[in-house]
Amino acid sequence: MKHISKLPQVETSIFSVMSALAKQHDAINLSQGFPNFKSDQKLIDLVSKAMNSGYNQYAPMAGLLELREAISKKFELLYNTNYNPETDITVTAGATQAIYTIISAFIHADDEVLIFKPAYDCYEPAIKINGGKPIAIQLEAPDYSVNWDAVKQQISHKTKMIIINTPHNPSGTILTHNDLLKLQEITAETDIIVLSDEVYEHMIFDGLKHQSVCLFPDLKQRSFIVASFGKTFHNTGWKMGYCCAPKALMMEFQKVHQFNVFSVNSAMQKGLAEYLESPEHYLQLTGFYQEKRDYFLSLIKDSKFTFQPAQGTYFQVLNYSEITDDYDVDFAKQLTIKQGLASIPLSVFNLGNKDDKVLRFCFAKTNETLEKAAHILNRL
């Protein structure tokens, strides 16, 4: 049999590589972004109750209405904006499925999509497999701020979509109010769609505020917001997320969604709908994760690593240039094999594998795990 690959250059993701290496060498795994502590038992009990109450068959294609209503109320509470639960919200099998489906619904052959690197690794393959062309703009360490003049220069009649991610994975930075105003200005009176990956919206530190696209009226009318229950409630293995957009955009999304997954886990939707009735379940996350970040950084303050504290997410970028000149992928692998600590090198997400001598560490871990990791980092 002969075939032509749609993704000929795609190899095994760095997340799979580093997690496999961590398992092989029994290393502490701060590479892949998942918590190593339990989800709230109350949420687990609500899902179990839903299963025992008969929520075991197909949910409606867009998701259980009561969950969509709960999501709509969350947006009213947090951002004083409205998404109609009947027409503007779809529950998805995680954020990655939502992102893939948005791109599939709108990107045609030769359409251009602007992405910012370092970029989460699911964006570019989804663009390519749908015949689109990723146009990458490199963000510069250590602050990873956007040069909006450079963005303007890349806009053309072929530009169909711009993908943003705030808080930003892998750098842990956030977009500011001014950044979103610039984006709104650039896309005004165009047909450009904005895909806003906001899965870490509840992890913003040091009194900063999450600047969602829904806070900016013109941006909201052209944007999808993608969110993740898995990231928010410490259960990434459930693969539960959602997206929001104005009715006209969501109609196109659902045309693809219904033939992709159709609908997602009924019992989890029921449990999440009840769980969201108490806003403190997501409002307390900022304090919880800032405490984790601060504790981790306090443990390594005397190490040879340098850093700017993460503004959001549950990832901290550390610069190791005072330790070695090794290529970051090589250093990350040796740190796993020889020292027993796995991380993620950022060059794999950059244009031309640009090496800034930085590694990403996930601090969504128990204090015991963070202490063991810090002990390794401090002896380098």
Give structural notes:
This protein starts with 13 loop residues before the first helix and ends with a helix. The protein folds into 2 domains: 114 residues, Aspartate Aminotransferase, domain 1; 237 residues, Type I PLP-dependent aspartate aminotransferase-like (Major domain) (Aspartate Aminotransferase, domain 2), CATH 3.40.640.10. It is built from 15 helices and 12 strands. The protein has a 7-stranded mixed β-sheet with strand order 2-8-7-6-5-3-4, sandwiched between helices. A 3-stranded antiparallel β-sheet has the order 9-12-11. Strand 6, helix 8 and strand 7 form a beta-alpha-beta unit. The model has no long low-confidence stretch (mean pLDDT 97). It is α/β, with parallel strands linked by helices and 380 residues long.
Helix % is 40-55%
Order of helices and strands: HEHHEHEHEHEHEHEHEHHHHEHEEEH
Topology, number of strands: 12
Average predicted confidence as pLDDT: 97
| Shape label | globular
Based on the model shown, name its key terms.
Aspartate Aminotransferase, domain 1; 15 helices; Aspartate Aminotransferase, domain 2; 3-stranded antiparallel sheet; 380 residues; alpha/beta
